[in-house]
Amino acid sequence: MLPILPVSAPYHHGDLRAAALQIGMERIEDQDHPDLGLRALARDLGVSATALYRHFPNKDALLDALALEALGRLGANQARAAEAAGGGRNGFIEVGITYVTWAVENPSLFRLIYTRVGKVDFDCDPTEMGEAFMQLRGGIATTMPDNMSIEQRNVAALHAWSLVHGLAMLILDGQVEYDPDMVRNVVVMTDFRGS
Amino acid sequence: MLPILPVSAPYHHGDLRAAALQIGMERIEDQDHPDLGLRALARDLGVSATALYRHFPNKDALLDALALEALGRLGANQARAAEAAGGGRNGFIEVGITYVTWAVENPSLFRLIYTRVGKVDFDCDPTEMGEAFMQLRGGIATTMPDNMSIEQRNVAALHAWSLVHGLAMLILDGQVEYDPDMVRNVVVMTDFRGS
DNA sequence: CCGACAATGATAACAGTGTCAACATAAGAG
DNA sequence: CTCTTATGTTGACACTGTTATCATTGTCGG
After folding, report:
1. What tens digit of pLDDT does each residue of B22-66 get?
2. Is the CB of A12 under 7 A from strand C?
3. A90 touches chain B (CB under 8 A)
C-alpha cells in the first residue's frame, strides 16, 4: 500500500538555508528587538539545531545573511523612492522621509542591519555588502543639489544620511515619539547652501 | 598570634555594588562593543556570581545602572561644552562636535546608553533617567538661535540631536571613517533659518 | 543496476550563561 | 548575648552556541 502522505517528514528538508532565512526573517520582523536563537529557529523549522551548521558556519554568519537581506530591502526601498520622487530639493526630502519611515515600520530589521554591520568580522561577501550600501548611499546622494562641487555633495550626502539615521535611531529607542509631520519638519529643515 | 594580613579575603566585601559598577565600567570601556558577563565580572571582583543578586535584581538592572552612569558622563560632558562654548551659532557647532567626539572616544559607553534605553523595561529610576536625558537635550538646546519660536527651537534641537547622533552611530558602525575635519564640516552645514 | 562518495540530517555531549533555592557568615539592634 | 537582617557561597536547573560522531539520502561513474 502506497503511503497517502509523505511519511511525516522526509529526512532531507529540500532547501534549508532558504527556509531558515525566510522564517528567520519572519521571526525577527515579529519582534521589535532582533533576538534570534538557533534552537528556537530550528524548532520552528522542524529540524535539529545542528542541521543549520551545514548551511552556515555559525550563528553570526546566519545573522549576517539576514542583515544582508534586510539591507537589500532597505536599499531597494530607497532606490524606489529616489526614482519616484525625482531630483531636486523635494526629491531629497521625500527620500529622507522614506528612510525614517522604513525604519519605523521595520524596527527590528533596521536594528539588525546596523548591529551586524560594524562587527569586527562581518562574514558575508564584502562585495555584496559594498553594493548594498552603495545602493543605499546612492539613493540618498542622487537627489543632492546640482550646483555643488563633488566635495560639497559628499559632505551633503553624509549630512543627510546622518540626519535621517539619527532621527530613526532616536525614534526606535523611544527618545522621541514618532509623528510623520515631525519627521517631515525635521528633514525639511535641512537646507543646503554653500555658505 | 595575630594574622599579619587580612586572612585572604573577608567574607563581606564592604561595598560591592559600587565596586561592581566601577570595574564593570572599566571592563566595558576596554572593549569596543559592550559585552558583560555576570560570571566574568564576579570573577574580577573576587566574588561569587550570585553575590551580585544581592545588589541588582538581575543582569539587565546592572547594565541599566551602568548605562545610567555612562549617560551621566555624556550629559556632564555636553553641559560643560555648552557652558564653555557660550551661545550662538558657534556654540551650537562646538556642542555638536563634542557629542560626536565623545561617542568616538567612548564607543562602548555610547553604545551601552542607546542599547539599554529603549528596552521595554528600563529598570532604573525614571526620574534619574529623565533628568539625565533632560540634561543632555538641554546641552544641545541651550545654543539654539534666539530668534525662533519655541516650536521652531524644538524642531531645531531635534534636528541637531538627530544629526550628531546619526553621525556618531555611522562612525561607530564603521560606515564612515572618523576625521575631525569631516565632522566639523558636516555639523557646520546645519544652518537654521525659518525657511 | 550498483557501489562509492558527497551532501545533509540527527544524537549526545561540552562549556558557558543567567538565575534560583538553600545554606553560611557577618554585622547591628534589642 | 541573642535575634534579625544583610550579604556571600554552593549547587543545581534550564538554556545557549558549538562540536564530534553517527545515520540517512541523493548523485555519479562503471
Report:
1. 999 999 999 999 999 999 999 999 999 999 999 999 999 999 999
2. yes
3. no
